[in-house]
Amino acid sequence: MSDDHRLRIERTYEAPAEAVFDAWTSEEVIRRWWQAEREWDTPEAVVDLRVGGAVRVVMRDTDGDEHGGGGTYTEIERPTRLAFTWTWDDSTRQTLIEIDFEQSDTGTTVRFTHSGLADEETVRDHEHGWSNILDQLRHYLDDRS
């Protein structure tokens, strides 16, 4: 049995790579869009944007329950690549999130990979949440243009 199940998601945004990269690395901006459901909010975002620096995000659902996690930046190449470890608060399993940003004439394609997931069921569970989060990013980027 593989111990490294991966989730890959690709999205293209009508925004320059710098703007999309910055949306992932600004505490203030993360609080505006990083929610697994549209009705949720994000009361906490911590970004120490340096290799070895901390990243942490806490989302709050409509019942007031918090869903948080965090890790450490492992790669920062503005505006083309961002990688960080990730552990959910209710888990001890450390995973890795890698985000590649590719700008073209029509916008920026984001290739999101979350690796180190426990099994295919976990991949499917994460796919729903991360897809919604990436959709929320689209709403944020569209609203600012």
Provide a descriptive summary of the structure in words.
It is a single chain. It contains three helices and seven strands, in the order βααββββββα. 21% of the residues are buried. Helices cover 28% and strands 44% of the residues. By secondary structure, the protein is an alpha+beta fold. The chain is globular and about 40 Å long. The chain has a seven-stranded antiparallel sheet, covered by helices on one side.
The strand order across the widest sheet is 1-7-6-5-4-3-2
Measured by DSSP, the beta-strand proportion falls in 35-45%
The CA-CA distance between the termini, in Å, is: 46 Å
Query: What is the global morphology?
Result: globular
**Mean pLDDT metric:** 96
What does the main sheet amount to? 7 strands, antiparallel
List SSEs in N-to-C order.
Answer: EHHEEEEEEH
Strand segment count: 7
**Number of helical elements:** 3
Report Rg.
14 Å
Low-confidence stretches: none
Features:
145 residues, alpha+beta, seven-stranded antiparallel sheet
Chain-wise SSE layout:
Layout: E1 5-13, H1 17-25, H2 27-33, E2 41-47, E3 54-60, E4 66-77, E5 81-88, E6 95-104, E7 107-117, H3 120-143
Antiparallel strand pairs: 1-7, 2-3, 3-4, 4-5, 5-6, 6-7
